[in-house]
TrEMBL record:
GO BP, sorted A to Z: galactose catabolic process via UDP-galactose, Leloir pathway; glucose metabolic process
Catalytic activity: alpha-D-glucose = beta-D-glucose
Active site: 191 (proton donor), 330 (proton acceptor)
Protein name: Aldose 1-epimerase
EC number: 5.1.3.3
Molecular function, one GO term: aldose 1-epimerase activity
Length: 372
C-alpha cells in the first residue's frame, strides 16, 4: 500500500482547553488519504502522525499524549519547535561583535533548547496556508511567534514562522523562517520522537537506521562538542548503511557510556542551506513496513534514542514510555556552534532571513529487500 499523489489534503482546527491567561490551545489536523498529522499551537508542536502499515492498519507513530498536564510537564519537548537555539550552548553565554550575552541557564553548565522558558512553552498564532510552488499542491498550517529582545538572554527581537505542509502523497514539509532586529544566533528544530511500530509498542532498537553522514561531533560530559569532527568508520556511530539502532548501542565506547545510548550530532554530507532539501536519514521498521525518509537543508542531525526515559510520560496507548521507546531525528545546526568558528554559522543579522526546510517522507510498503 503506497501513497496516492492524487488525494486531496484537508485542514481543520479545534480548540482544546484554556491554558493560562485565558489563552486557548488549538489542534490543527491535516489529512491526506490514510495519513493524518496533528499540530498544536502550544510550542508549534507536531503532536501526531498516523499512518498505515503494509497491511493497512493505522497507528500513531509519534510518542504523544493528550494529557495537558504531561504536555506542559515531562512531555513539553515531545514534537515541539525548540529554540531560540536548539540543543546546547556551553556556559550559557554567547559573544557577538565582541559583546558577551548571558543566557538563561538550564543546568549542568549549559543552556539547552533556548532556555528554561524556550519556544516549546509558548502559544503560537496560527493560520491555514496552501503552497502551490511544490511539485504537488500542499496545504497546512503556518504558526508565528514574536520573541522580544532579551528573551532568555538572547539579543534581538525575533519573529519566527513555522509551517507544516502536507502533500497529497503523504509528505510532510516543516519550513522555518525568522528575522531579527539585532545580531543574534538561531537554531530551530522539531523534537518529535518516532516509533514506526506504533507508540507504546515497545522499543525502537530493532528499527533500521541509515544516516547520510561520514562524521559526527564527539562530546564531553555536558554533551558539548569538544573538538573537530571524528569519522564514524569503525565505531558504533557508523550508520552509513542500514543497521539496527540497537546493534551497537551498548558497546563499550566512551561516547556511549555517559548518555547511555545515542544523543549525538551527526555531520551530514555537504548541502546548501539555500538549496533543496537533501536526504539525511532513513528510518525503517522491518515488521510493519513503515518508514520515513528525512530530507533537510540543515548541516547536522541530532539522534537521541530516549535513553533516560523512565516512564514519566504515559502515551495515548496508556503505556508508560521507558528507555528507547522512540528516536528523535532532529535536523539542526551543530550544538554549541557559537563557540566553534569552524562549524557552520548560526548567526542571524538584521536584513537577513533565516530559512530552513525539513521534509518527512512517509511510506508503508518497503519491500523486504530494502529492510536489511
Amino acid at each position: 500500500m503506497a501513497p496516492n499523489p492524487e488525494q486531496l489534503v484537508t485542514v481543520s482546527r479545534a480548540a482544546l482547553e484554556p491554558a493560562g491567561a485565558g489563552a486557548a490551545i488549538e489542534r490543527w489536523t491535516l489529512r491526506s488519504g490514510p495519513v493524518e498529522v496533528s499540530v498544536l499551537t502550544l510550542g508549534a508542536t507536531l503532536h501526531g502522525v498516523r499512518i498505515p502499515d503494509r497491511s493497512g492498519a493505522v497507528a500513531q507513530v509519534l510518542l504523544s499524549t493528550d494529557d495537558l498536564g504531561q504536555i506542559l510537564g515531562p512531555a513539553r519537548h515531545f514534537g515541539a519547535t525548540v529554540g531560540r537555539y536548539a540543543n546546547r550552548i556551553a556556559d550559557s553565554v554567547i559573544t557577538l561583535d565582541g559583546v558577551a550575552h548571558q543566557l538563561a541557564p538550564t543546568g549542568g553548565g549549559v543552556t539547552l533548547h533556548g532556555g528554561p522558558d524556550g519556544f516549546a512553552n509558548r502559544i503560537w498564532a496560527a493560520e491555514e496556508v496552501t503552497d502551490q510552488s511544490a511539485d504537488q499542491a500542499r496545504a497546512g498550517v503556518r504558526l508565528h511567534l514574536h520573541s522580544p529582545d532579551g528573551d532568555q538572554g538572547f539579543p534581538g527581537a525575533l519573529d519566527v514562522w513555522v509551517s507544516y505542509l502536507l502533500s497529497p502523497a503523504g509528505e510532510l514539509a516543516i519550513e522555518y523562517r525568522a528575522v531579527t532586529t539585532r545580531p543574534t544566533v538561531i537554531n530551530l528544530t522539531n523534537h518529535a520522537y518516532l516509533n514506526l511500530a506504533g507508540e507504546g509498542s515497545g522499543d525502537v532498537l530493532g528499527h533500521l537506521l541509515t544516516l547520510d553522514a561520514d562524521e559526527y561531533t564527539p562530546v564531553d560530559q555536558r554533551q558539548i562538542p569538544y573538538g573537530p569532527y571524528e569519522p564514524v568508520a569503525g565505531t558504533p556511530f557508523d550508520f552509513r548503511s542500514a543497521r539496527p539502532i540497537g546493534e551497537a548501542i551498548h558497546q563499550d565506547h566512551p561516547q556511549l557510556a555517559g548518555p547511555g545510548g545515542y544523543d549525538h550530532n551527526w555531520v551530514l554530507r555537504p548541502r546548501r542551506q539555500d538549496g533543496p532539501p537533501v536526504r539525511a536519514a532513513l528510518l525503517q521498521d522491518p515488521v510493519s513496513g513503515r518508514g520515513v525518509e528525512v530530507l533537510t537543508t540543515e548541516p547536522g542531525l541530532q539522534v537521541y534514542t530516549a535513553n533516560t526515559f523512565q516512564g514519566a510520560v504515559r502515551g495515548a496507548s496508556g503505556v508508560a514510555y521507558g528507555p528507547y521507546a522512540g528516536v528523535a531525528l532532529e535536523t539542526q545546526h551543530h550544538p554549541d556552534s557559537p563557540h566553534h568558528p569552524g562549524y557552520p554559522s548560526t548567526e542571524l543579522r538584521p536584513g537577513q532571513e533565516f530559512h530552513s526546510v525539513t521534509i518527512l517522507r512517509f511510506a508503508w510498503d518497503f519491500p523486504t529487500s530494502h529492510m536489511g
